[in-house]
Amino acid sequence: MMTPNIQATDCSNLIPSLTSLFPPRPLHRPLSLPHSRFISKASLHHPSSPSSSSSSPPSLVSRRQLISQTASLSLSLATLLSLPLPAKSEEVLSEWERVYLPIDPGVVLLDIAFVPDDLNHGFLLGTRQTILETKDGGNTWTQRSIPSAEDEDFNYRFNSISFKGKEGWIVGKPAILLYTSDAGESWERIPLSAQLPGDMVYIKATGEKSAEMVTDQGAIYVTSNRGYNWRAAVQETVSATLNRTVSSGISGASYYTGTFNTVNRSPDGRYVAVSSRGNFYLTWEPGQPFWQPHNRAIARRIQNMGWRADGGLWLLVRGGGLFLSKGTGISEDFEEVPVQSRGFGILDVGYRSEEEAWAAGGSGILLRTTNGGKNWTRDKAADNIAANLYSVKFINDKKGFVLGNDGVLLRYLG
Fold it and tell me: Where is the Photosynthesis system II assembly factor Ycf48/Hcf136-like domain (predicted)?
């Protein structure tokens, strides 16, 4: 256990100084903008009319031909009328529209952000070095490339993107940090030290030339000079914290593998993170020197956690359970809310307003609440989407997106 005098603790061996972790930055390397579009067509085949027998009497032949042709025409019309309309049954849900992207089917979409001064201009990130750009509010997307990343033998997974004004930041794995000051017209790569603890999983633009960056080992760094220097906001990694508090009764801390499964930030700068095994969760508030671990009060392991629009917490467990904290702020007291998940896991929740939120998950699960989470209804039209939906992002009350695997992107119609 550490001494009560936390501020006097020497933690330089736990998280190295970011002044030494970030060497001088290279020159600007603008992104290129290749275009790719694929169009497929389909055709209908109409069966030919049945032939008649030449040996029948003339009047009888005419009657038989008429009956046969009428039956064939009725069958063809019935078949055509029973065909589903793709635009209605697959592409457009009750309040969501699927947007098809010029990317490989195996890409998992991970994050999306728009330039605050121009909400028609946005970027979409994913695995396999995927960066897409839109300039029409998300209706169509084109690929962007990073020349500095293509020069290396890496296939980057871009995890997080954030904008404040025209300044934007992107982080990915293997360690890569990109910065723009012109709303994404060009991107500059900021070098990172190999001693950085963990992989960068989250970035938040907080002000002019300022950002907050989080790794999957619990390191939080902040910069106020465009990334030239960074300082540690916590004094130790989560592994070090648990080594000190393992005797304090945190269940499963001895099995901690040293990484987060998920991490989410509230608008006022508080964090909640789920351990890699889902057996406990951790919270951090600005000014705290360490992460605070919490026991889970639910038997099933935690899948994800995040912040409600009213400041409380939501919690998802494996198997499709959804829990809401009692009251607002950080709490260990949760109550379960019935949902129609069909046994599939719910993976994320996004709030459109304080009362309306959407939850998404495995096998196209899409749920909606209009009373702050007390009751949820399933959007059955999403059952036709053969993909797992990982993330729900609302830019504002009129613009929202659901991100999934296999390049699935849903756009909110309202």
Answer: 91-412
pLDDT of residue 253: 56
pLDDT tens column, 252-289: 555 566 689 999 999 999 999 999 889 899 999 999 99
C-alpha span between 327 and 314 (Å, rounded): 11
Partners of 381 in the β-ladder: none
Tokens of 251: 């269940």
Distance CA 101, CA 407 (A): 7
Q: Is the dihedral of CA 348, 351, 352, 357 positive or negative?
A: positive
Q: Cα–Cα distance between 249 and 227 in angstroms, integer?
A: 39
Q: Are 188 and 194 contacting, i.e. CB atoms less than 8 angstroms apart?
A: no
CA–CA distance, 347 with 340 (Å, rounded to integer): 14
- CA torsion angle for 138, 143, 148, 149 (degrees, to 10)? 90
What pairing do the DSSP bridges indicate for beta strands 292-295 and 302-307?
Answer: unpaired
Q: Residue 191 class from Cβ within 10 Å (0-12 exposed, 13-18 middle, 19+ buried)?
A: middle
Q: What is the DSSP letter of 10?
A: -
User: Exposure pattern of 306-317 as b/e (b: 16+ CB <10 Å)?
Assistant: bbbbebbbbbbb
Q: In what order do the strands lie in the sheet with 271-275?
A: 260-265, 271-275, 280-284, 292-295
Other residues' Cβ atoms within 10 Å of the Cβ of residue 204: 17
Q: What share of the chain is helix, strand, coil (3-state, %, to 5)?
A: 15, 35, 50
With left for phi above 0 and alpha for psi between -120 and 50, is residue 211 left, alpha or beta?
beta
Structure token digits, residue 28: 């600007």
The tens digit of pLDDT for each residue in 141-164 reads 999 987 776 766 788 999 999 999
The DSSP letter of residue 30 is: P
CA distances from 105 to 126, 316, 387, 405 (A): 12, 27, 11, 8
Nearest CA-CA partner of 192 in 13, 24, 15? 24
